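Researcher: Checking consistency across runs. Here is CocE/NonD family hydrolase again:
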Amino acid sequence: MTLLSRLFGVRPAIRHPVQGRRDIVIPATDGVPLLATHYYPADLDRPPLVLLRSPYGRGNALDQLPKLLAERGYQVLYQSLRGTAGSGGRFDGFTIDPADADGTLSWLRAQPWFGDQLATWGASYLGLVQWELAARHIPEWKIALIQDAPSAFAEHFMYPGGAFALGNALGWVQLVDTMFSGNFSLPRQMLATFTAGRKLRRATLTLPLEQADRALTGRRVSWFQEWISNGRGQAYWERTDHRANTERMPPRVHLQGGWYDFFLPSMLADHARLLAAGREVRLLVGPWGHGRGLYTREGMQDALAALDAAMNGDAAPTGVRVFVTGAKRWRDLPGWPPAHQPTSWYLRPGGRLSREEPAPEASPSRYRYDPGDPTPTVGGTAVSRSAGPKDNRAIEARADVLTFTTAPLTEDVEVIGPVRVRLHARSSIPDVDYFARLCDVSPRGRSLNLCDGIVRLNQPGGIRAADMGAVDIELWPLAHRFVRGHRIRLQVSSGAHPRYGRNPGTGQPLAEARELRASEHEIFHDLDHPSALWLPLTPGAS
């Protein structure tokens, strides 16, 4: 029995003996050879097949999932995408060659051991390829199990709010470079982690940015160059946008995300589109960062229940199940977002946050942002093991960060749904960012981040700066209970480095900017300029 089966409490009712065939060659339609491993229960004839397609190698820790599935009575075809782990062709970042899927499906249908039931499974890139797979009609496809992967890649990963997600972009460049240069060897990857943090920090401060990939890996990375040369809304990103494939997704879809995953807002939009397309959808959102939910007891059990039901023609749980942080418990919801009342919490002088409307006159709060010493960030939605909730007190003590905090709460406040902030702001230069982060402050003063968002002003096709205008920031959604005695805090700043690349303030192209320009900021909070945080208060909550 596999370690995962024991660890996550998913021991099979009947344990099947598992056999495997390695380095099977599957021709893509353009002739490129793709390598795969085939796991199968030796005592079953043509059982259902689960297809996993990955750029992250085979023969490593990721093989534990195929073995778990095979001992439960499923065949698993675990394929390496082109340009990875021995497969031919060239790897091209998040651009997926359709010849891979076309060739794989044709090859599968010609195999005597392939029946008429197909499932797909995978997190992150292994989920993205499932959205691309739906570019074609596949009658054998019964269910897609997708973790932390949206149909449209760029919006919340690459340019959220118009700001370039530098830390995530370079973090993924480093991950792929380590895997490829180490020939997918797990020991080599572990060894590389000792110097990875230092190299990444140095690369994120490189100017101009077009040299950052070389500073990190010692070579030019073609797809990173494309990312920094093609801003938000450029035609380049259309090749990574698979939203039009929603109508060809299988009858059942299992979506799993995390409150600290950078893809979550896009996945919630996918959930709505799939329901509108008549699909049976299960949505599970846990207290995890990117890619971590799959290997949890709750995530594994829920996904396997959906897979078994789809392949057996049985009913499975649908609807929405979320983990309410703060309360530390799961809650079943009829849909997303649940019924809620957007409630305003106003920014006040002296760093206060209150439900009371602002006074008619109040002096603005001020700070200075210097991209030469960019405002840092910790935790949150990062491509890093440090993602998630972290203590923010060191950052909140900086002069370039404003905080607005409530008095200790006299009752629990539970919020589930979307979060937004409106700032009435004035800056000394037009090319600036505004970053907002929501935190839960304990009675001992520990400030844990819950969600955040950013907006870059003066970008082509984006928000234009005004002399003093309203800036709207969409934060990540959440499900959280602020318990009695805790305080609600909102951070306001003009940077969150390296999660978001620093705004040089000069208006120069992202890839080419060499100069850095500091800026002065005023955040207004009087009756005529009521800067505020809106939280989704759940019905019946305090």
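Researcher: Does this match what you'd expect to see?
Model: One thing to look at in this run: The longest helix spans residues 186-204.
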